[in-house]
Amino acid sequence: MELMSVNQTQLLSRIAIGDGHGENSPYFDGWKAYENDPFHPIKNPNGVIQMGLAENQLTSDLVQQWLMSNPGASICTPEGVRDFKAIANFQDYHGLPEFTKAVAKFMGRTRGNRVTFDPDRIVMSGGATGAHEVTVFCLADPGDAFLVPTPYYPGFDRDLRWRTGVELVPVICESSNNFKLTREALEEAYEKAKEEKVRIKGLLITNPSNPLGTTMDRETLRTVVSFINEKRIHLVSDEIYAGTVFGQGGNSFTSISEIIEEEKDIECDHDLIHVVYSLSKDMGFPGFRVGIIYSYNDAVVNCARKMSSFGLVSTQTQYLLASMLNDDEFVEGFVEESGKRLAKRYGVLCRGLGEVGIKCLESHAGVFVWMDLRHLLKRASFEAEMELWRVIIEQVKINISPGSSFHCCEPGWFRVCYANMDDRALQLSLARMRTFVTQGKKSCGLRELRLSFSSRRLDEFLSSPHSPFPQSPLVKATT
Q: EC number(s) of the enzyme (predicted)?
């Protein structure tokens, strides 16, 4: 596409000609590198392996089995077509009642049924992206700002800022305490913003964390609630990984909703509390674009519902998911099995990285690890981090995301996703990292790494009794 001429740019808006979307980030550059040279075990065995995409594909077989057993859940099947006309013509932005009730029940289930949600407060949006933007439109004006603990999801720079005109103020969290959010860090960021005459309207937390894969404990959440109440600012709690939790009996996640309903000894104005949720991660449905706003503020619910008409969830999707989420036996089994598979995959990745001296922040949620490569940097700088990242992308042929794209204050951390691929791709990724680290140590440099794998040699390597990786049935089934 040719660059726009001066005359063309004068005809367009600032949004159209600006770069506020944030695509000029290493986070998105890694995706582009994968798209230009995608790994395939047969067609392109030396291609880039995608470990920069936070998707959970480990339980798609369970969903497929349910769909085969419940064909009437879709209006596009012979069993469900009888409801086609009614569903296809439904356009109330309150949503199908059976859908909002099912989502409210599922939100409670992913939080251990320790808290309940009112279906009348469920507001739909086009994924968590749309939910965040609508929430910000309801809470702030252009030029206002939100505090956001670092490291944080790079997409927030787009979701919260691009069209709203709102700014983000980092709250610096450090590795010395495993990036835990503290009252001191909140106060420092808030006071600095005040000195710069920036109006803080709210605090956005991500719990469970992307990219850390950790959850906030009750004491931290109590601190957060006390802080926003004292400052009279809003709290937006992104909980899109609430059901993507493993280990510790699956009860290691505490929702902000539990705190404000159970902790009666701390003051809390419920009008300041808002939850963003989605089915993209917990159910593995990013393409369905199901985003949820759950606010305890009536005015926000009313405004968000009106604004949701710009990004509603299709009634066909609502109809299908209402049936699925109301199947208690399926949901119970799905959540339990998802946790088991995530824990297993997490363990395989961390053990494999540990064998070559690579450590990760201990975590029990999400679909990624926060990998520590500080010892591989030529020097402690973000420039050195980018140099290392380019080697990993271009020569090791793995797309991982550098910590600087998550606004991490310390160079050398990387997010690595592990649930968007099969066992074979994960094992090959570990093999490449092993070669990278061992060759790098021998040569004291990071160039000319030999990582060539033909599909035949790949099969031989993975099926060898000397392979350091557990055997996968997917490897045996490959033809």
A: 4.4.1.14
Could you list the pLDDT tens digit for every one of the 479 residues in the chain?
Answer: 455 555 666 788 888 888 777 777 788 888 898 899 999 999 999 999 999 999 999 999 999 999 899 888 777 887 877 887 877 777 777 888 999 999 999 999 999 899 999 999 999 998 899 999 999 999 999 999 999 999 999 999 988 998 999 999 999 999 999 999 999 999 999 999 999 999 999 999 999 999 999 999 999 999 999 999 999 999 999 999 999 999 765 458 999 999 999 888 888 999 999 999 999 998 888 888 989 999 999 999 999 999 988 888 888 888 889 999 999 999 999 999 999 999 999 999 999 999 999 999 999 999 999 999 999 999 999 999 999 999 999 999 999 999 999 999 999 999 999 999 999 999 999 999 999 998 865 544 444 544 444 444 444 433 433 333 333 333 333 32
Q: The pTM is what?
A: 0.88
The region that residue 293 occupies, defined by phi over 0 for left and psi between -120 and 50 for alpha, beta otherwise, is: beta
Locate CATH 3.40.640.10 in the chain.
Answer: 74-328
CA–CA gap between residue 192 and residue 393 (Å, rounded): 37
State whether residue 62 is helix, strand or coil. Answer: helix
Q: Given this structure, which CATH class describes domain 74-328? A: alpha beta
Q: Which CATH superfamily is domain 6-52+373-477 in?
A: Aspartate Aminotransferase, domain 1 (3.90.1150.10)
Residues annotated as catalytic are 153, 238, 240, 281
| Alpha helix positions (H), 122-255 | 127-139, 156-159, 183-195, 218-231
For CATH 3.90.1150.10, the residue range(s) in the chain are 6-52+373-477
Who contacts 303 (Cβ-Cβ below 8 Å, separation ≥6)? 137, 138
Q: Which residue has the tokens 């600095």?
A: 192
Q: Name 291's Cβ contacts closer than 8 Å, sequence gap at least 6.
A: 124, 125, 126, 127, 128, 129, 130, 131, 276, 277, 278, 280, 311, 313
> Please, which residues have CB within 8 angstroms of residue 255's CB and are 6 or more apart in sequence?
111, 114, 115, 207, 237, 239, 242, 275
Give one DSSP letter per residue of 17-42, joined into a string. Answer: HS-TT--SSHHHHHHHHHHHSB-BTT
Report the alpha-carbon angle 213-418-423, nearest 5: 150
What's the maximum distance between 2 C-alpha atoms anywhere in the chain? 68
